[in-house]
Amino acid sequence: MRRVIFNQKGGVGKSSIAANLAALSAAKGYKTLLIDLDVQGNSSHYLGCDINVENKRTVADLLNQTVGWFSVSTPVKEFPQPTSFSNLDIIPSSPKLEKIESELERRYKIYKLRDALDELEKIYDRIYIDTPPNLNFFSKAALIAAHSLLIPFDCDSFSQQALLTLLNNVAELREDHNPNLNVEGVIVNMFNAQANFPSQIIADLSELGLPILQPYLPQSIKMKESHYHQKPLLHIYPSHKLTKRFEELYATLEKEAVTEIEQ
């Protein structure tokens, strides 16, 4: 199962959701891989990787080795690196992503991530892909490589418009490149149950027939604290309300994933 976490709008908690779902997957006993395609490297930092330290096994190096005709190719299975959390590996981001994007696009290497995941799926039970907050080469490659799409959403009118634009773009990409991509659902993040407006926005989306996942994830300072300590919520605040919501969300997603795999 390969899940991509993507929204064209920034600040919706994309990296936090990717890292915490991956951590839960690993804690449940699944061999799990997180791939960080965002040049900012937030999910890499969250899981303890410094993307500014010289490293020859980043996602940029994995993709860049497909460009040269005579370059020595490192086997795909050598790129994942262990984190400090059992069963959870990462292929971290790199500042080099920004430098190689135009060359990868020019040479039409958009399917190379999918090819790499075909190999890595022989090793990993679950693969999560964090993406940049825009529809660029890397996010398109992730959408082409993935089985399902999770969309973080933070309940404002700008997010609503961005979501509708995203779904139009995904529909076009699915038609041209990945007809099996499943829009698994919208993850409502930083939800304020005390305010009426977020509930109204969610109701509007539901009327459009969009799959809104339950439960909603509440806003909490504990998330920022977990970023600071570089530990997913499960490993630092196992009893907190936000952690429990993540566990419920993960259980819902995993139930659907197991059903899909069995089919």
Task: Explain what the structure shows.
- The chain is of the alpha/beta class.
- The chain has a single domain (2-262), classed as 3-Layer(aba) Sandwich (Rossmann fold), CATH 3.40.50.300.
- It has eleven helices and seven strands.
- Strands 3-4-2-5-1-6-7 form a seven-stranded mixed β-sheet, sandwiched between helices.
- The protein is globular.
- The model has no long low-confidence stretch (mean pLDDT 90).
What layout of secondary structure does this protein have?
Elements lengths: L1 E4 L8 H14 L4 E5 L5 H5 L12 H6 L16 E2 L5 E4 L4 H11 L5 H9 L5 E5 L6 H9 L2 E6 L3 H20 L5 E7 L7 H12 L13 H9 L3 H4 L4 H22 L1
Helix pairs in contact: 5-6
CATH class: Alpha Beta
Number of strands: 7
Tell me the strand percentage band: 5-15%
Radius of gyration over alpha carbons?
18 Å
Concise structural overview:
Helices cover 46% and strands 13% of the residues. By secondary structure, it is α/β, with parallel strands linked by helices. It has one domain (2-262): Rossmann fold (3-Layer(aba) Sandwich), CATH 3.40.50.
